[in-house]
Amino acid sequence: MEDVLTVYRLPHNPLFPVVCMDESSKQLVGEVHAPIPAAPGHGQIIDHEYVRNGVATLFVEVEPLAGRRHVAVTERRTRQDWAHFIKAMLDERYPEAIKVRLVMDNLNTHDLASLYQTFPPAEAHRLAERLEIHYTPKHGSWLNIAEIELSALNGQCLQRRIPTIDIMRHEISAWQKHRNNRGAPINWRFTTEDARIKLIRLYPKL
Fold first, then answer.
1. Which of 78, 110, 146, 180 makes an SS bond possible with 20, Cβ 3.0 to 4.6 Å?
2. Is residue 52 part of a domain?
3. Does any domain span residue 41?
4. Is this structure's pTM higher than 0.70?
């Protein structure tokens, strides 16, 4: 925990950016009956019946000090999907960074082994050398700033029925563009001292 909170206090440095990553899933839901359009006296009427069209996985990265985020939507949640997401992050979104300080939780796919299971050894090593991983503690995934971004994404964009993965990608792309254009950084105020008070039950008594 202290490791993550220390990273959050580092000054902004494009060569060593702090990037938070998290993932979630979202059910794809379609309509059985077409909604009744809004009219004077009532809003849009949506039938309670719906059809499930599968589940999409959302990979979210956010650079809190730069106010920048990126969301990738995939059909699966595998080691290979995570590895390709990380490769794109390093080579496309942070090509000039010497090392990305990556904050994430301990999900079983979130480790360097995923890179070596996906890419040839030399390529996996190249990518791994550009990562400085900081894991959130067990039961402490809320310390990951990317969870704030996921909450905003769900509340502002995904709180409705979205039938296909292509529509979801289009909607998320528009949301992401709007958020990035605002460029509002995230000011993390929770300190190690705060943690020792709020989470005192998690610390051993010496």
1. 146
2. no
3. no
4. yes
| Phi–psi pair at 89, nearest 5 degrees | -60, -50
Q: Give the residue from 147, 177, 187 showing the smallest Cα distance to 20.
A: 147
Nearest to 19 by CA among 101, 80, 137, 77: 101
Give the strand pairing for 50-63 and 131-135: unpaired
Domain that holds residue 61: 2-29+57-201
For residue 34, being part of any structural domain is answered with no
Pairing of β 50-63 and β 68-74? antiparallel
pLDDT in tens, 175-185: 999 999 988 77
pLDDT at residue 192 in the model: 63
Domain total in the chain: 1
**Tens digits of per-residue pLDDT, 62-80?**
999 999 999 999 999 999 9
Residue 42 inside a domain? The answer is no
The structure tokens 């051993």 sit at: 204
